[in-house]
Design brief:
Shape of chain B: elongated
Strand order of the largest sheet of chain B: 3-7-6-5-4
Number of strands of chain B: 7
Distance between the termini of chain A: 9 Å
Largest sheet of chain B: 5 strands, antiparallel
Largest interface: A-B, 21 and 21 residues
Number of helices of chain B: 9
Order of helices and strands of chain B: HEHEHEHHHHEEEEHH
Shape of chain A: elongated
Largest sheet of chain A: 5 strands, mixed
Strand order of the largest sheet of chain A: 4-3-5-6-7
Helix content of chain A: 25-40%
Oligomer: heterodimer
Distance between the termini of chain B: 86 Å
Strand content of chain A: 15-25%
Chain lengths: 208, 247
């Protein structure tokens, strides 16, 4: 199962048009800036070079375009070339994805003049958790809770229903597994004690 | 709600500038969207008249109004709107034009639009959004829903029909065999009822049958086995006839 950053960026951007409080910045006691566009900042870190690159007008992109644009940003980051200043400064909201690490909890810090940052971790093999830090001077906890609730239901809609059995690693369904000549899934216990179903291919792999 | 607003909506729906005298014919998808719009805006129009050629003036016939606000969403007599036969069939087919169904590009948040939420489930929308051509995919799904409606008994809410690809990438819905094809700006779908009317899948094997018994070895074996049964039947009939004749 791959990460869910592109889904979070795609659906989150659409939702931020509805929850505009979260796509804004606190200026002073009298003024709050509401951004017209959703520029999703994506944090990249290869170890000692943390950068947040902006995916501009993310709310106008389709999902395949979002996926492609995020890949381009990653390529740019990894190329070591000079990154245009506007890509480093124009984000209106940020996502920090640590789901490829063993982190099971995170509390992201707000980035620059922004009102929301999302943090993603993967607490179990097929369980992602999204944490949000927001500026309480602009938005309320209830708004953020509703935003996260809606975001979760939208992301879940891209995956098979829970009763449809699938491999915990590659999402292959049990129907496909049987069709490929195997008798069914294998229940395995992971080092952390979690029990999951795995297809024959994923069971034979030495690591996830 | 006045004629002007109906005219504006129909102009957007058909992507043409209409006058109140313009004669038009709506596809089943357009009828469904018009019906839905009427419900949202509490507009009473004569739905019987939108089944053929009509003008906007025809819709304001006050003597024959149907109360559209008595029901919610698309829980309507879909047979009347889709042109499906009142009698159930085991097979249904439907063709839709992408440009008729979605005259404009879909940039906005579909999951927050009532007109889309009343026709497509969130999972269908997500599936379409993950595809390169969202309009084409949604048109295909809509055609499949309409084809399934033509196979069913009674009134059906389009939201109760969820057409999604199965694990082999083929469109599926409960006990129906569904096939969708696209060409240019058209999508066509055919659906066949593959069992009980309630549409619940009975077993894994049942689900596998439609896709595995088409042209693989099992299908050949099955067909060979069936032909052997027919040959044996014939053989026994001949023997019985011979016995009868000799008696």
């Amino acid at each position: 199962m791959d990460g869910i950053s592109d889904l979070i960026i795609y659906e989150g951007s659409k939702l931020l048009n509805k929850y505009s409080d979260l796509n804004s910045a606190y200026i002073d006691e009298k003024s709050v800036a509401v951004f017209k566009h959703v520029n999703f900042g994506i944090s990249f870190d290869s170890g000692n070079n943390l950068k947040v690159l902006s995916l501009k007008d993310a709310d106008k992109l389709t999902l395949p375009e979002t996926h492609s644009e995020v890949s381009k940003l990653l390529d740019l980051y990894e190329s070591g070339k000079q990154i245009p200043v506007d890509l480093l400064t124009s984000s209106t909201v940020t996502i920090s994805d640590l789901s490829k690490t063993k982190a099971s909890y995170m509390r992201p810090l707000l980035n620059g003049l922004q009102g929301l940052i999302l943090g993603v971790v993967r607490s179990k093999i097929n369980l992602f958790e999204i944490y949000a830090t927001f500026d309480h001077r602009i938005s309320s906890g209830l708004t953020v809770a509703r935003f996260l609730e809606e975001l979760k239901s939208r992301i879940m809609s891209y995956y098979p229903l829970s009763e449809e059995k699938s491999c915990a690693f590659c999402r292959k369904s049990i129907v496909e597994e049987v069709a490929s000549g195997n008798r069914g899934f294998i229940r395995i216990e992971l080092p952390d004690g979690e029990e999951v179903s795995a297809c024959r291919n994923c069971f034979d792999r030495t690591s996830t | 709600m006045n004629q002007e607003e109906i005219r504006t909506f129909l102009s957007k729906l058909t992507n043409t500038e209409l006058t109140n005298d313009s004669v038009l014919t709506l596809s089943s998808a357009q009828k469904a969207r018009l019906y839905n719009w009427c419900q949202e805006n509490h507009v009473n129009i004569n739905l019987q008249k939108i089944n053929g050629r009509f003008s906007i003036n025809d819709l304001s016939d006050e003597t024959d109004l149907l109360k559209s606000n008595n029901s919610k969403g698309l829980e309507h007599k879909i047979n009347n709107l889709s042109g499906a036969s009142a009698l159930p069939a085991n097979i249904g087919v439907d063709i839709q034009s992408i440009n008729e169904l979605f005259p404009i590009s879909l940039e906005s948040d579909l999951k927050d639009r009532e007109d889309f939420k009343s026709i497509f489930t969130i999972r269908e929308l997500s599936y379409a959004q993950s595809r390169i051509d969202m309009r084409q995919t949604l048109t295909g799904i809509f055609a499949a829903k309409e084809a399934i409606v033509k196979c069913q008994y009674g009134e059906i809410n389009l939201l109760d029909i969820e057409v999604l690809p199965n694990n082999f990438g083929k469109p599926s819905y409960k006990n129906f065999l569904v096939s969708i094809s696209h060409s240019g700006e058209y999508a066509i779908a055919i659906a066949m009822n593959n069992g009980s009317q309630n549409g619940h899948s009975s077993s894994l094997q049942d689900n596998l049958l439609p896709y595995f018994f088409v042209d693989d070895n099992i299908a050949k074996k099955k067909s060979f086995f069936s032909s052997r049964i027919r040959i044996l039947d014939l053989f026994f009939i001949v023997i019985i006839l011979v016995i009868i004749l000799f008696k």
